[in-house]
Amino acid sequence: MTAPGLDGFRYFSYAKRQHISRRLFLVERVAEAMSRARLLQNLCVCCLMLQACHSSTEVGGYTCYPDGADRDDAEFCVWIDIEGGVGKAYVERNRKTVRLSILNAQKEAVLEREYSAEAGDLGWVSTWPEISDLQVVFYEYSDPQTSSETASGHAKLPRQVFSIALTYNQTAGVFVEALAPIAVLDQASQYNNIENTRHIVEISFLDTEENETRILELLRELAGSRGLQIDEPQTGIIGRLAECSARSFSAHVQRYDSLGQLAVLLEDYGNRELTDDIANRFRDLPEVVATRHNVGVHLRLGPLDLETVIQIVGTVAEEYGLSEGDRLRMFDVAKYGSGGLEVTITHFEREGKVKISIEDSGWHPQFEEIETALRSEFKAGGDRGTPDGI
Q1: Residues in contact with 258: Cβ distance below 8 Å, sequence separation at least 6, in sequence order
Q2: Are residues 125 and 264 in the same domain?
Q3: Distance CA 236, CA 255 (A)
Q4: DSSP letters of 321-332?
Q5: Helices 272-283 and 209-226, axial angle in degrees (round to 10)
Q6: What are phi and psi of 331, to 5 degrees?
Q7: Sign of torsion, CA 158 161 164 165?
Q8: CB within 8 A of 363, min separation 6: which ones?
Q9: Residues 133 and 156 in one domain
């Protein structure tokens, strides 16, 4: 015979065990959910990091017609979107994609164009005084403009990269490319002539306090002995530390904090002897981690078509032991390389132009030989392409 209240005790114990089991089950489910949440959070962080590594910076804006109209009540608006290089800061010199769109009052696209340009901090200015006279000029500053440069009277002037002229066909209701003014064409020709003499050397060092001191001391010494104008160097900062210049020549020291490197960049427009002299002095310093040489041969396609240009460049490349490789960038049509020495052909179809880039990540003696051979090939004979200032 069961004592009074014993059945109730057994029921209470059983119910308590059930309650505890449910609580343990809920705790396990909560812990499992938190674990999944942490995993998802970590995955999101990794995705964001990967996206940051493979993303590009975009800048944009718009101009409306008539002047002063807001985009909600304008007849037309031209939208500009510029996309920088993948994984690059926007101000770094690299190939940028420029997208231009014109929308009507109904927000319908009446014109869409895409262009490509090699530039640093690419900006633009547009003028639209009449509906049939839209001009957009894209430009860059050779170096960032600072208050100290402006105060000392050495403010940097903008350099035009390229321009677009558009006119409005009222009958068809569309915008079409127009002939650029003669002054614009002359300026473009002069730009190509200058670019054909452009020569770039970059020498990189480990970023240490000792290297910074050595580099800046040598720059001061060279500026004094070569008659170069030098700005007062700044130590310990990220970005540009020092700059000196002369006619058709400039040199500056840059800290790339993300790479842990200090770089000396030399750029000349025909003053090769000075560049080579200064480059050799910096190459003699300790802890050089990398060097880079770059020149470009610019030419307009005429009787000589693109396939013939590729054949000529391929023949020269083969003579110097360069083999054909993969084309990685938009508008590249052929690439040859070996041991850090590369020759790339880039075709700008709209402008009818070709750029042959010679890039050397070492210090190969063949670099100047290949450049000389290519310039000679595209200067000789009336059946060649028309060189821009070669």
Answers
A1: none
A2: no
A3: 9
A4: TPEE----STTE
A5: 150
A6: 80, -5
A7: positive
A8: 283, 291, 293
A9: yes
- pLDDT tens readout for residues 145-186: 443 443 344 445 567 788 888 888 877 788 888 765 545 545
250 and 337 part of one domain: yes
Do 149 and 289 reside in the same domain of the chain? no
**Which tokens is 116 given?**
């490509």
What's the total number of domains in the chain?
A: 3
pLDDT band at residue 132 under the 50/70/90 scheme: confident
Q: Is residue 53 part of a domain?
A: no
For residue 343, is it within any domain?
yes
Tokens of 5: 């209240």
Length of the chain: 390
The dihedral over CA atoms of 364, 368, 373, 378, expressed in degrees to the nearest 10, equals 130
CB 163 within 8 A of CB 138: yes
Identify the DSSP state of 57.
-
Q: Looking at the structure, do residues 143 and 207 belong to the same domain, yes or no? A: no
Question: How do residues 267-308 score in pLDDT, each as one tens digit?
Answer: 998 888 999 999 999 999 999 999 999 999 988 776 678 899
In the sheet with 94-104, reading across from the earlier edge strand, the strands are 58-65, 76-83, 94-104, 109-119
pLDDT at 231 over 90: no
**Do 222 and 343 reside in the same domain of the chain?**
yes
| C-beta separation of 208 from 255 below 8 A | no
CA–CA distance from 105 to each of 71, 75, 78, 167, 319 (Å)?
8, 5, 11, 17, 58
CB atoms near residue 298 (< 10 Å): 23
Both tokens of residue 118?
């090699």
Identify the pLDDT of residue 295.
93
91/169 same-domain check: yes
Q: Are 243 and 320 members of one domain?
A: yes
Domain with 321, as residue range(s), is: 198-387
Q: What is the pLDDT of residues 177-219, one digit of tens each?
A: 876 554 554 555 566 677 788 899 999 999 999 999 999 999 9
